[in-house]
Amino acid sequence: MEFKDYYATLGVERSATQDEIKRAYRKLARKFHPDVSKEPDAEARFKAIAEAHEALIDAERRAAYDDIARRHASGQAFEPPPGWDSGFEYSGRGAGGMPGRAEDFSDFFESLFGRAGGPGGFDGGAHRQAQGRDHHAKVAIELLDACRGAQRTITLHMPVLDATGRTVLMERQLAVSIPKGVREGQHLRLAGQGAAGQGGAPAGDLYLVIEVLPHPVFRLDGGDLYLDLPVAPWEAALGATVIAPTPDGSVRLSVPPGSSQGRKLRLKGKGLPGKVPGDLYAVLTIALPPSAADADKEAYGAFARTFADYNPRAALEALNHG
Q1: Short-list 185, 231, 188, CA closest to 212
Q2: Closest Cα to residue 139, out of 81, 205, 209?
Q3: Residues 28 and 56 in one domain
């Protein structure tokens, strides 16, 4: 997937106002509309123009796009990094008028904004007549905070239009209690932290959507955790008791004799906490000692002579001769 420069598609500067973006879209849409254009690539150009307009005409989507566009060039290989859109607060008001159908847009658009075209995939909440709108924000947290719970101060940026029609970011900080065992995609409700109400009506709520960042040791799958646990060849062959990390500290783990690469050792209830806590799976990897020194090479040679009749590829060779 390639990064798309939506400003270049519309032929406007990154500092363009919302009105300038509208005018550029209308001009190009008339030129490349498939019903009137004689250009051979009119339909493709029209779809690209509509997609760029949809990404930039909404101040909230535009702010998120601008943040990531500062680090990527048009045509560059692109994959949204973890937590790229965390910290942006959205009002949930939805798109600014869809010039095309979101399902016609590219995988790049969907990877940023979701199939429905909302910022980060959010569709937003329904607008109540007097009560303030609910706001939404994606928040990226550390995996260990999800396991243990934590008190954190988060910074949110709310995209708004200034008097000149340009997008600016208003910043605010909130103290947030991250509950122990919070899951990926779970919504945390902060009552009264959304938009102010009208005529004395109560404010809306703020919904934080949890994203759990990758961890250098543990991998999260639902409520279960996985880690790669290196063992020496003799530990796998003869069995051993080794030290394994968990989110709550190290534990002693028994490796059964005759274990092979990829074997999973289950630590029940050591995954994410909850009514039904997840498990922790230690996946064995065979770690080979170095073979740089002469003594190392001699030890490997003795090992090879001892097991001269062992063929690790016997099953594969049997398939070839079957």
Answers
A1: 185
A2: 209
A3: yes
Mean pLDDT of 144-166: 88
Instruction: Identify the CA nearest to 41 among candidates 26, 56, 31, 51.
Output: 31
Q: What is the pLDDT of residues 251-292, one digit of tens each?
A: 999 999 999 999 999 999 999 999 999 999 999 999 999 999
Tell me how far apart the alpha carbons of residues 205 and 131 are, in angstroms, rounded to a whole number.
Answer: 10
- Report whether 55 contacts 113 (CB < 8 A): yes
More confident residue, 91 or 10: 10
Structure tokens at 46: 């029209």
Identify the domain containing residue 227 by its residue range.
Answer: 218-290
Q: What are phi and psi of 170, to 5 degrees?
A: -95, 135
Q: What is the pLDDT of residue 130?
A: 65
Q: What is the pLDDT of residue 306?
A: 94
Domain boundary among 192, 212, 232: 212
Residue 64 in this model has a pLDDT that exceeds 50: yes
Sheet containing 187-190: order of strands: 89-90, 135-141, 206-212, 187-190
What is the tally of structural domains in the chain?
A: 2
229 and 170, same structural domain?
no
Q: Are residues 106 and 249 in the same domain?
A: no
Q: Are 46 and 168 members of one domain?
A: yes
200 and 131: one domain?
Answer: yes
Long-range contacts of 289-298 (CB under 8 A, 24+ apart): 289/232
- The structure tokens listed for 131 are 């009560």
SS3 call for 82: coil
Of 111-115, 116-120, 157-161, 205-209, the one with minimum mean pLDDT is: 116-120
Would you state the structure tokens that stand for residue 27, as one six-digit string?
A: 């001009």
Question: Can you tell me whether residue 311 is helix, strand or coil?
Answer: coil
pLDDT at 234 over 50: yes
